Amino acid sequence: MTDDPFSAPFGSLFGDKMTVARLDDGVYSYPGEAQPFENFSMHPGAHVLHYASACFEGLKAHRQSDGTLAIFRLDDHVARMVNSIDQIQVPVPDPALIRSLILDSVEANASFTPEPPGSLYIRPTFIGTTPNIGAAASPADEGLLYVLCSPVGDYFAGGIRPLTIYVETKTPRTTPQFGMVKSGANYVMALGPTLDAKRDHGADQVLFATGDDTTETGASNFFLVDDDTVITRQLDETFLHGITRDSVVTMAQDLGYKVEERPISAGELGEWAGHGELFLSGTAAVIAPVGTVVVGGASVMVGDGQPGANTLRIRDALTDLLIGDAPDPHGWRTPVAG
Ligand code: PLP
Ligand code: COI
Known about the structure:
Blueprint: E1 17-24, E2 27-29, E3 35-36, H1 47-51, E4 54-56, E5 59-63, E6 69-72, H2 74-87, H3 95-109, E7 119-128, E8 143-152, E9 163-168, H4 184-189, H5 191-201, E10 205-208, E11 216-217, E12 221-225, E13 229-232, H6 243-254, E14 258-261, H7 266-273, E15 277-282, E16 286-295, E17 298-301, H8 309-322, E18 333-336
Parallel strand pairs: 9-10, 9-16, 13-14
Antiparallel strand pairs: 1-2, 1-3, 1-8, 4-7, 5-6, 5-7, 6-18, 7-8, 10-11, 12-13, 12-15, 15-16, 16-17
The structure holds pyridoxal-5'-phosphate and 2-OXO-4-methylpentanoic acid.
Residues 58, 216, 218-221, 240, 242-245, 281-283 line the site of pyridoxal-5'-phosphate.
């Protein structure tokens, strides 16, 4: 297998260190430094293997144009991880612990960071390890909280290219009460419709619009944009509050766009494709242009099917921020040694 992050599948390469804290009797303990990257040994009855007591985060460290390294929106990702751990009913660690696990892991794996447009993808993870297959109705009280680092290139194979999105109006991605939780169970639930849409429509992603209410894809949030306005779904508990989504909303305002956060129907998506642009946003996806929307049985080309000027403008503005080519007015970059 290749060890080039630009040709290996996203997330299939790893740094050689990881940080691990252990949860026992409601208390987390962390040795205070990274350890060699190695397999875990686990009881086959571990809670996570049966009752999905798992959640995770995804954030990135970027090599800056001055050669230093910085993590993007570290504290926002820590806060979302805290919420996810809380929602799977596991004792919540001190946010400072998650922060240290991330910083120590990134510092220990810094040399694996590819040059832009690559980055070091950071994966904080919690798994419940309580060995009890009867514990379906009780949370894990033992577990591992750990942080992996993966050198990555583009999430979508083929680089910046116009994606095909299938709009799913019947099957939901997950349950409304778990929409904001970054739990593995949500992703496995979305697999069926995602594989169907790939097979039947060549779709790269499914955009979930259950009950004609468009929320997010299986791995990103989404935006409509034209020369004046940026539109995205208003926040509620039914979908993941993307941190890239928040960055785009803030940056779009800074760039002078009018920003609307409101409901978007599947019909509006199809209609918007006729005159505007659509893009996806996410840590892995960054800003990914949509070239075709399959909606209501029809395949609609977005503009001329190529990445639009506004999408590229927003993508460039975000990329400049990520790699330190632009000032950081909102304090989103955290420097790390390495
Ligand atoms: N929605 C889902 C389901 C995701 O998996 C992601 C990726 O993390 C997002 C939205 C975008 O979130 P963020 O921008 O914080 O990466
Ligand atoms: C991320 O963007 O961090 C995600 O979690 C998407 C993931 C499915 C790779």
